[in-house]
Amino acid sequence: xxxxxxxxxxxxxxxxxxxxxxxxxxxxxxxxxxxxxxxxxxxxxxxxxxxxxxxxxxxxxxxxxxxxxxxxxxxxxxxxxxxxxxxxxxxxxxxxxxxxxxxxxxxxxxxxxxxxxxxxxxxxxxxxxxxxxxxxxxxxxxxxxxxxxxxxxxxxxxxxxxxxxxxxxxxxxxxxxxxxxxxxxxxxxxxxxxxxxxxxxxxxxxxxxxxxxxxxxxxxxxxxxxxxxxxxxxxxxxxxxxxxxxxxxxxxxxxxxxxxxxxxxxxxxxxxxxxxxxxxxxxxxxxxxxxxxxxxxxxxxxxxxxxxxxxxxxxxxxxxxxxxxxxxxxxxxxxxxxxxxxxxxxxxxxxxxxxxxxxxxxxxxxxxxxxxxxxxxxxxxxxxxxxxxxxxxxxxxxxxxxxxxxxxxxxxxxxxxxxxxxxxxxxxxxxxxxxxxxxxxxxxxxxxxxxxxxxxxxxxxxxxxxxxxxxxxxxxxxxxxxxxxxxxxxxxxxxxxxxxxxxxxxxxxxxxxxxxxx
Length: 518
Fold this sequence. Notes:
- The protein is an alpha/beta fold.
- The protein is 31% helix and 23% strand.
- The chain has a 6-stranded mixed beta sheet with strand order 6-5-3-4-7-8, with helices on both faces. Strands 2-1-10-9 form a 4-stranded mixed beta sheet, sandwiched between helices.
- The protein is globular and about 70 Å long.
């Protein structure tokens, strides 16, 4: 690797000059409001908020936060489906200096308990029907959306924002953990702003291009792109999950920058469009995670939407980089899914010793750049491992081609991507092993025509009380639905294939499933 000379970061500049290079998400949002106050910022069903109206609600909520005694650096949590108040919470937090923990309402109470206690929020904003999910959470003040929320806004005093440091955290997005417990990735103002720039630059978006936020707001794809759209001046259409009818109408009414499509929903969306027809106003790119989508679906949906398919590779921790730049042309069933490295980051491919690998040799992808997250909340060991040598280690293995593109090879950390959700085997194995008569368990990934991939479990036991039915019941009790194994195979303890160090060899278990199918 070429040596890069040390740069004098002082350069004789004053603290004031360095401060002038700082800005935050709220201030940039205010700039858009000043420029286009009457433009539609958010559309949700019959509700429309223009930029001026949205700012008024954001400022009232920020004033309420201050009146409640919340201080810079405090965490608040949002447990909610997609709704315009979610965005209001994020922008108000940006104005006050709070950090929003975006909770996954699909999790079970026990899983939510971990996510909440990890970040110790002082306030939880939630939907009334989701309150029962908080029954195992210690006493934390709650503000339900609806009359109580609107009353808080109505009674809020005047508000004047204070500038936030660019490196201050803004949102915490949870990622599945290799140990079976979620980690909280802290995304700063700097990262959100850089992601907005990368989003527009890489995909060639116009300032007024809209975004359909149908994927959960507790994920990077909707939170990042909704905020980015508002910082540019577009309209965010809020949809509560996959709703083909509402999504079709949004596509016909708005010019869309990126129409997010993920495995599991493309096939029913195609069927809906074929039945009802569609006349897109204009879409720059559609799709995501092309590696997990059947090629014929990519060809079909791009023709129906008259938009190329995004050959993406990013993560919660990185945003759209490091390799969300290439597109698959309209009507093409791709044979190659080579990725183009994003312009806003540096990338290395390294071997186990940390040395750069030559062309066409597998290496773990390391990245650094302004879109990168600030580390996992309260997880020193995980951060030390993830940021070795000043680079973020993604845990994914690629090969570099002579033309500069990279090809996905494998995952350094075994991960299952099912319907856009990340699931680590340890999450499922932890529940299976909670039965005292289960002597070992291993979860592997298998291709799934609808969801891209699905988990399958292998279990050994020492008592007849352990059955496939009892194990599935334990998974239903202890895991969110999307984490449930598609199948459970009971095998003898000695039949688990192991390495010389005793680790279960998942690739052999995967091969055994392929052999049964052939």
